[in-house]
Automatic annotation (TrEMBL):
Domain BPTI/Kunitz inhibitor: 28-78
Species for this entry: Ancylostoma ceylanicum
SMART domains to which the protein is assigned, alphabetical: KU (SM00131)
Signal peptide: 1-17
Chief location of this protein within or outside the cell: secreted
GO CC terms of this entry: extracellular space
Gene3D superfamilies: Pancreatic trypsin inhibitor Kunitz domain
Keyword Glycosyltransferase in record: no
UniProt protein name: BPTI/Kunitz inhibitor domain-containing protein
InterPro entries recorded: Kunitz_BPTI (IPR002223), Kunitz_BPTI_sf (IPR036880), Prtase_inh_Kunz-CS (IPR020901), TFPI/VKTCI-like (IPR050098)
GO molecular function: serine-type endopeptidase inhibitor activity
Subcellular location field: Secreted
């Protein structure tokens, strides 16, 4: 009887709606890395703690791939678009 109840619980949990899984590319999970050089370039990185693209100072060499020239590039690369927005289409009516 306990086994039957356990099985029913597993089945019911499996049928609950789940939010769509979103995956962040591996390089977006690295922290900001200035690198060994001493230049002073404004760049953007994805902050996995805040879930946002933030600016940091890049030294000009080395570092890692979580390093973007523009915030827009960081957002496109590291912040997944919600599933409901990916497939959204615009309906254009011919009515005046």
């Amino acid at each position: 009887m306990k086994l039957l109840l356990f099985a029913l619980c597993l089945v019911s949990v499996g049928t609950l709606p789940r939010p769509p899984l979103t995956r962040v590319p591996w390089f977006c999970l690295d922290g900001a890395d200035k690198g060994p050089c001493n230049a002073d370039y404004k760049r953007y990185f994805f902050n996995k703690t805040s879930g946002r693209c933030e600016n940091f100072t890049y030294g000009g060499c080395g570092g890692n791939e979580n390093n973007f020239w523009r915030r827009r590039e960081c957002i496109r690369s590291c912040i997944p678009m919600p599933k409901d927005r990916e497939n959204r289409s615009v309906h254009i009516s011919n009515k005046p």
